[in-house]
Structure formats: C-alpha cells, structure tokens
Design a protein that fits this description.
Elements: H1 2-31, E1 51-54, E2 67-71, E3 77-82, H2 91-94, H3 100-105, H4 120-123, E4 141-145, E5 157-162, E6 168-173, H5 175-189, E7 195-201, H6 203-219, E8 225-231, H7 240-247, H8 252-257, H9 263-275, E9 279-286, H10 290-301, H11 308-325, E10 332-337, H12 343-346, E11 363-364, E12 368-369, H13 370-378
Parallel strand pairs: 3-4, 3-7, 7-8, 8-9, 9-10
Antiparallel strand pairs: 1-2, 2-4, 5-6, 11-12
C-alpha cells in the first residue's frame, strides 16, 4: 500500500506541476497583445482606462524592464498602491523565484522576479482596482507601483546567487530606485490630488509605513486628507537590521528604525513619529494566513511550508502584534478576517491579503466587507472589524 501511495503522490505532484505551468503560460499568452492587456500610455489618459507606464531607468529583479499602472478617474482623489510579490534575504531564497509550477506544487517560491504578462492579473482589475459598480473606489484615480525586486520596495543593491539548475545569476534589489522613479511619474499624472489613500498588500504592506512619509513630504507635501493601509505584513525575524543594511542597502533611516523582530511595528512607529495626526492608520490581516505562515516557518525552521500548526502559530503572533500596535502613540484601526484559502493552492489556512482580491467584497461574519470598512475610513468613520476572531492569550 505504501508503494501505491508513493506512486499516486508522485503522479499528483507531476500533474500539479504541469497544471501550474500550463495555467501561467495560458494566462500570460492569452493576455499578451489582447484587448485585456493594459495598453502602454502614449498620450493623455482616457478616464477609467488602466494603462501601463514603462520606466526606462527602472529594473526588475532579473534585470528585465519595469512598469507601473495608472488609471484616471478623479483629479482630487488618488489611491497609491504598493504591490506585493515576495521577499529574499539570502542566496537560498534568491534561487527560487515564483513560477506557476512551484506555486502549485509547494516547491519553495519566494518572490516574483519580473513583470511578465501574468502579473497584470495580480495588479489591476481586482479588488480595490476593479471597475465594477460594487467597488466604492471605482471613482478614484489609481496608481499601482509594481514590485518585482524581493526587497520590500526599499533596496538599492544586487546579489549573485546560484540557481537550482547550477547557473550563476544576479538578483537586483532595485526597489527603492523603482519607487522614487514611479512616484515622479505619479505626481506628474495626478498633481491635484487632495485626498490620498496609500495602500499596500503583502511586501507592499511592509513598504507602506516605510515609504508613506516620503510620499507625503516629497511628492504630496500639502495633502492632509490621508489614509494608510497595510494589508498583511507580519514576519518576525531577528535579522531585519542586517538585511536592510548589508543585503538590500536600504535608506539609513529605515535601517536605524529596525530595532526588533517586528519590522512593521518598528516602521509604523517611525511613520507615526513623522506624520502624526496627518493620517488615519489602518492594518488588515487574515487570522491563519496560509502564505505568511509558510514564510514564518522558513524563518524558524528553514522550511517553506504551512499546515495547521504553522497557521496556529501565525494566529498567535498576529494577536500579539495587534496588541503591541494598540499601544502605539496613534490609534490604529483593524480589519481581521478568516476567509478560507482555496484548497488547491493554500493547503488550508486563510487568505493572504484582501485589498486586491475578490475577498475585498466579502463580509466578515456577515457584517462588513473590507470595501465598506476602507471607504468608511477614508471618510473619517473609523472602527475595528473581526478582532474577536483572534486567539485569546492563555
């Protein structure tokens, strides 16, 4: 029986690997050059249309090109999104960028290293970037700062590594340069914004407290109607300061602010010290995040995987993080959910991020969706959702 099970598992693995590659290539090939692919902006933006804006001086992690996305709808209301897409802080992680096959088979897959066509699906026309009438932000202008550099948008270095096929390659931690170039374009496109939402998911959620002060002092210094949202940014490790300084070569003030194992807490403290009452501060997460629990296990045991134990550990860490954030000098309001992850991808647990997924419109305990909670927050109506879903300390 054990041999039959082993053979069955091997066949299942191969089928999942083939399916992952097929899905990625089919989606990418179907999107590229079609009417669904965002057109390159050449002249003036037409209202309600998503555009790609290539930035020649910018660069993705594998050395290929880089672009952002933008859509004009309202000259006074602007949502700036810092995208997610994984992380790498050593050569082991650098050797395993995400592919469809790796994702489906749960081989290590730590970061997206370029902006191939399939990545458009993660960036626009979903969740808060959807143009459907159910979206309360469909009337806002939007800019998406894409991410493909594995450095939380703050890197300015490069690292050689050996691929899983034994070839020498280079990972370009070019996130901070990409960010500043992107913001120059965004300011030019949306110079009159008076109400701003700065939101980030996953790696971009870490970047929100790191970069929001710069956005608001360098590019939008007179805007005072500001909401900031980090959606899913919890990864505890002792090496953050070393990584920021010696691996990514991040700006000095971000390195110096990384005092402990909770980088989001440290950077949020820094953000509050610089912005004070100028912003409304928001944080969101699912309780048993299937993906962040896998990264956390990578930190604690060197294994990129998740299961009920890893997800329960993540839930406890999340509850402790929120308790810490409740003692920050400025009030943070929370949206906590436990939306289940699709079993074929997630291996149990709950979703990873909501703000740019279909779960943006899903209600928590039949009460409030993130879409409604976030709209209310931008209008000054602040409250918490889902805190009772967190595990209680023993």
């Amino acid at each position: 029986m054990s041999k039959i099970k082993e053979q069955t598992d091997n066949i299942t693995y191969m089928l999942r690997e083939m399916t992952g590659d097929l899905v990625e290539h089919s989606l990418g090939d179907g999107l590229e050059g079609s009417r669904w692919e965002a057109p390159v902006l050449e002249k003036k933006m037409r209202g309600g249309v998503w555009y790609r804006i290539p930035i020649e001086e910018a660069m993705s992690g594998d050395g290929s090109g880089y672009h952002i996305y933008a859509r004009y709808k309202h000259k006074k209301k602007l949502c700036i999104i810092l995208s997610g897409g994984g992380i790498a802080w050593n050569r082991k992680m650098a050797a395993y960028p995400t592919t469809g096959a790796r994702k489906m088979t749960w081989q290590p897959h730590y970061y997206w290293n370029n902006l191939r066509p399939v990545t458009q699906i993660m960036n626009i026309n979903v969740g808060i970037t959807d143009t459907h009438r159910r979206n309360p932000f469909r009337g806002w202008s939007m800019a998406v700062i894409s991410y493909s550099t594995a450095d939380l948008h703050v890197g300015n270095s490069s690292m050689e590594f050996v691929t899983d096929e034994g070839q020498t390659d280079v990972l370009h931690f070019n996130g901070y340069n990409n960010f500043t170039l992107a913001m120059d374009h965004i300011r030019e496109l949306f110079p009159e914004a008076e109400t701003i939402l700065i939101a980030g998911d996953s790696a971009g959620a870490f970047a929100v407290p790191a970069l929001a002060p710069e956005i608001l002092t360098t590019w939008y210094p007179t805007c005072n109607d500001v909401t900031v949202l980090s959606d899913s940014a919890l990864l505890e490790r002792e090496g953050w300061e070393y990584t920021l300084k010696n691996i990514w070569h991040a700006p000095d003030h971000l390195v110096h602010a990384a005092h402990g194992s909770d980088l989001t807490y440290d950077w949020t403290s820094l953000m509050m010290s610089r912005l004070g009452s100028r912003c409304r501060y928001l944080y969101a997460s699912s309780v048993h995040d299937y993906l962040l629990s896998a990264y956390q296990r990578e930190v604690t045991s060197g294994e990129f995987s998740t299961d009920e134990n890893a997800q329960a550990d993540y839930a406890k860490r999340l509850a402790a993080m929120i308790e810490r954030m409740q003692h920050l000098p400025r009030r943070v309001h929370f949206f906590i959910n436990d939306h289940p992850m699709v079993p074929v991808i997630g291996r149990g647990g709950s979703v990873h991020t909501c703000v740019r997924t279909p779960q943006f419109f899903s209600k928590v305990e039949n009460e409030v969706s993130m879409a409604q909670w976030l709209r209310d927050a931008t209008e000054g109506k602040l409250y918490d959702i889902g805190l009772d879903l967190l595990p209680h300390s023993e």
